[in-house]
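Batch job 17 of 40 flagged for manual review because the log was empty.
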Amino acid sequence: MELDPTMVVFAGEYDVGNKASLRTLLDRISEIPDLVLDFREVTFIDSTCVTELLRMHTLRITNSMPRETIILGKTPIRRLFEVLDLYRVFNVVEDVAEVPHDVAALQRVEFAFRSARR
């Protein structure tokens, strides 16, 4: 089964409280060959969720899949990606215009939630 290039849009905060939901989603989309994760509306991500992204990436590489693209824009999480050197792991871009696919051809999947910060 051939899967279309897909953009998954994330928004809000991702932390240990919603790690299981994030893992479920990432497992579900990990087999999409041309995968774009749009994080421009993400306001917070903790290390447990970064681990889930790395887990998905490792699964994709193990299955000979290409690197996923992550659109960061000017989000607050940009600094985290820099400190953790995630630019070496993922294909990180700032703008949708830099996505290596025809954006009009991308299937778009919305996945947004906000965790209750304590």
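Reviewer: the log was empty due to a logging misconfiguration, but the result itself is present. Strands lie at 6-14, 35-45, 69-71, 91-93, 107-112. Unflagging and moving on to job 18.
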